[in-house]
Specification:
It is built from one helix and 34 strands. The protein is mostly beta strands. The two termini are 15 Å apart. The N terminus is likely disordered.
Length: 419
């Protein structure tokens, strides 16, 4: 347990702007809000995460509105580039009003897609297309038609072995597309299932060539670089993660399953109490073994050994009416050279956990729901990651680790970690 101090007056004032407070822990650290974007909408269901470029200088946030619940205008559903220093809007690219609803834009990918040294932003849209924009200006460069709208973030990587990267994307009808950097389609496959998870570009058999893994409501599929299906498992996956050894971790409604990425063979299965959400694998406890970090209902986070499926620690983030817990992320938040675990709950809480024990180190709360995972990125070049949180009301909040005295004390049920 870590001490908390109640500042009733501050909490009351904070509630007026939707913020409860930043959480300070006994080891002298806090998560402090550095900015909040001016991208609010008249709904609380925005649920596609923020995209950030590899240098931390391009932040792209998908913002959506809800038809019949709020007025829909020409910029109600927009991809907005935010300035890293203060969250100000640099440009916005909008989906037409007739195509505007809650899934209007996926989490964008930010990368040098065409190899010219500049960044591009790639996003799936309800215009039934993957759209690529120039990151500097927000102007559209090209688009690739899809069967319907996308849901997961597009992936960027060298799939075919040709010069330059490719873009890999999928839509919710299970269409998988690999496109070159000029927008021409290399190959397209139909998986005949609903796909919510982002595709993964990985070398599953450590042979130096990258494969593609896609998960959906009817299975997980592995593809060769040329589009040949390598294997298909009947394991369902609403979220996917892949570890350094090529193990595929599939999270679904009741189980967490590990698959051999080279063959699709099931390695182990964990039955869990509700949906398991995964995103990152790594070795945050420094034991030389890979873990996958799992969010499960009841505001609970697990660290699970990817080789054996055993739980290394379990943490409860406290009770509350909203019980959904989204996929934790790994990032060195405090700049000490080791990864922390960043977890969010549907109730609006962001928590930094110790990667070794699962113990809470700092927390931040805002009285607005969260419907997706956080995005860590080093926005200011200080070698520690800031945390970008996509709140349901359309705002993006940037949080930074500060030492004691830089935050505000808050009372909340403390998280506990146990081996």
């Amino acid at each position: 347990m870590r001490p908390r101090t109640l500042l009733a007056a501050l909490l009351c004032c904070g509630a007026l702007v939707g913020v409860v407070a930043a959480g300070v822990t006994a080891d002298g650290g806090a998560l402090t809000q550095t900015w909040s974007s001016d991208t609010v909408r008249d709904n609380e269901v925005n649920h596609h995460a923020v995209g950030v470029g590899p240098r931390g200088d391009v932040i792209a946030a998908p913002i959506a509105a809800v038809p019949n619940a709020e007025t829909i205008g020409p910029h109600s559903c927009s991809l907005v580039r935010l300035r890293p220093s203060d969250g100000a809007t640099r440009w916005r690219w909008s989906v037409p009003a007739e195509d505007c609803f809650t899934h209007a834009l996926t989490q964008p990918a930010v990368a040098d897609v065409d190899g010219d040294g500049g960044m591009e932003v790639a996003v799936g849209t309800t215009q039934r297309a993957l759209v690529v924009l120039d990151a500097a200006s927000g102007t559209e460069q090209w688009r690739v038609p899809l069967s319907t709208y996308g849901y997961g973030q597009p992936a960027v990587g060298n799939v075919t072995g040709d010069a330059g990267p490719e873009l890999v994307t999928s839509d919710i009808e299970g269409t998988l597309v690999v496109a070159r950097s000029n927008g021409t389609v290399t190959w397209r496959r139909q998986t005949d299932m609903a796909v919510w998870a982002a595709p993964k570009i990985v070398d599953v058999d450590t042979d130096g060539a990258t494969e593609i893994v896609l998960g959906g409501d009817e299975g997980v599929v592995g593809y060769e670089p040329n589009g040949t299906r390598r294997w298909r498992s009947d394991v369902r996956a609403s979220t996917l993660a892949v570890d350094a050894e090529g193990r595929v971790l599939a999270g679904n409604t009741a189980r967490l399953v590990a698959l051999d990425g080279a063959t699709g063979e099931r390695l182990w299965t964990r039955d869990l109490a509700g949906a398991s959400r995964v995103h990152d694998t790594g070795d945050a406890d420094g034991d030389g073994e890979s873990e996958v970090y799992v969010g499960i209902p009841g505001n609970t986070i697990l660290a699970v050994d990817t080789q054996t499926g055993t739980t290394e620690w379990r943490t409860s983030l406290g009770s509350g009416e909203r019980r959904t817990t989204f996929a934790p992320r790994l990032a060195d938040v405090d700049g000490d050279g080791t990864d922390d675990v960043v977890a969010v709950t549907n109730g609006g809480t962001v928590v930094v956990l110790d990667g070794t024990t699962g113990e809470e180190r700092a927390a931040y709360e805002r009285n607005v729901p969260i419907w997706t995972f956080a995005t860590p990125a080093d926005l200011d070049g200080d070698d520690d990651a800031e945390v970008l949180v996509r709140y349901g009301d359309g705002r993006v909040v940037a949080l930074d680790w500060t030492t004691a005295g830089g935050g505000t004390l808050v009372v909340r049920p403390p998280a506990t970690g146990a081996r």
